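dumping this here so i dont lose it
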């Protein structure tokens, strides 16, 4: 016998397969949308945290720039004050320096040496005088070389003058540098 199936089983199965596929496709689309929303929220959160961090760093940089400006101002003031102190110290030394240098010169002159001229210009000194003999001139030069105020002591000349009352005097010239702040 021949059987005829009048129930639409195949069509029902086909419809169920299509419904399942549509449902799976819709679920996939919804899942994709949810993943995109979560991903966008994560990116937005990361972006906002980076913006906040950048703002904090900019505030910190502005504060450090202010501190750097204050330090530079302090250094400039410090340098200016140090320069003023140096000038004051130099003036103080130059005030008492010539007196000390002349006192040192007076104490170092041997008994038989007379200074007739002392000229100083911009630290260069020319000393002219007379002595009984060359050894006295030499002793005077050695004394000047030992002094902390006089440097570069050189003999310009030493000449015997015509005898007066039986005594021959030697006229000399010594050049050197003077440092009043020594």
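and the seq i came up w/
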């Amino acid at each position: 016998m021949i059987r005829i199936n009048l129930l639409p089983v195949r069509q029902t199965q086909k419809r169920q397969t299509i419904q399942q596929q549509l449902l799976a496709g819709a679920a996939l689309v919804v899942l994709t949308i949810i993943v995109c929303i979560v991903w966008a929220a994560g990116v937005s959160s990361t972006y906002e945290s980076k913006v906040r961090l950048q703002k904090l760093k900019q505030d910190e940089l502005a504060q450090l720039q202010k501190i750097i400006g204050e330090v530079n101002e302090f250094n400039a003031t410090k340098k200016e004050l140090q320069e003023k102190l140096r000038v004051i110290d130099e003036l103080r030394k130059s005030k008492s320096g010539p007196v000390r240098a002349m006192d040192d010169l007076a104490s170092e002159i041997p008994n038989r040496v007379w200074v007739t001229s002392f000229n100083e210009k911009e630290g260069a000194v020319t000393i002219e005088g007379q002595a009984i003999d060359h050894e006295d001139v030499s002793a005077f030069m050695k004394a000047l070389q030992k002094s902390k105020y006089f440097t570069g002591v050189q003999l310009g000349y030493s000449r015997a003058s015509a005898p007066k009352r039986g005594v021959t005097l030697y006229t000399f010239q010594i050049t050197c540098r003077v440092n009043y702040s020594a």
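The chain has a mean pLDDT of 89.
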